[in-house]
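Issue: ligand-bound run for magnesium ion - logging full I/O for the record.

Environment: standard queue, default settings, no custom constraints.

Inputs:
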Amino acid sequence: MQSIGKEPRLGESDTLPEFFGRLSEAWASALLLDYDGTLAPFHIDRHRAYPYPRVLPLIERILQTEKTRVIIITGRPAVEAKALLNPLHDLEIWGAHGMEHILPDGSYRRISIDVQTVELLSQAKQQVIERGLERLAEFKPGGVAIHWRGLPDAEAGKVEARIRTGWTALAKSPRLKLLKFESGLELRVAHPDKGDAVAAIIEESDPDTQIAYLGDDLTDEDSFRALNDRGLTVLVRPEHRETSAKVWLKPPLELIGFLEQWLSRISA
Ligand SMILES: [Mg+2]
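Outputs:
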């Protein structure tokens, strides 16, 4: 683990200075970005979680160079992320943890789910309704989430206790997995996950393409593991935590510094 500005440790092949050195030389690059907690601070109303100042103009300038493929990989439904990233257009977005894919030309595709998984997810939704948690629920492609951001700790604990047992039982199926995220719990399809989206991007990239992934959440650990042998993985978070990412940046200043550095390296 290396924080920005610190000397690379021996044997660590992917430190920030080394990565940026390779990026300067590269003819192709890909910048993979989680949205919530990475580009945007959390907001009590998740539909108003807009990016940090300066983030959108910097991404826009990176896109304008046409040297970097910028790809958003988020747990949100893809259209929701697209709306929050307005006025950026021609963006590639993998939504719902890789279930949905919007290409830069606006075309959309969604991975279909088998009948048994659909049935398990409908049981999960039924539990939400029976426990009176609909107003905290988000029904999205391939999953159901319960959000408790903004609730007092005691209340949040009660909400979690009401849903966790039932969902844990459903998650015994290998078709589903239970994810704890910042202020919530999500039961969703085991695959695809964000790591599968990253693997697909690696697969279609030229071997010389320089790739970095920035994320904050536990769901981003799948992405870090998928990319670690191939590119730079960055945990973006105010506090450090146990992670597979190689570099840690504190938002927003170090994140903005990273994007500025990226822009200057590909513009040189
Ligand atoms: Mg996040």
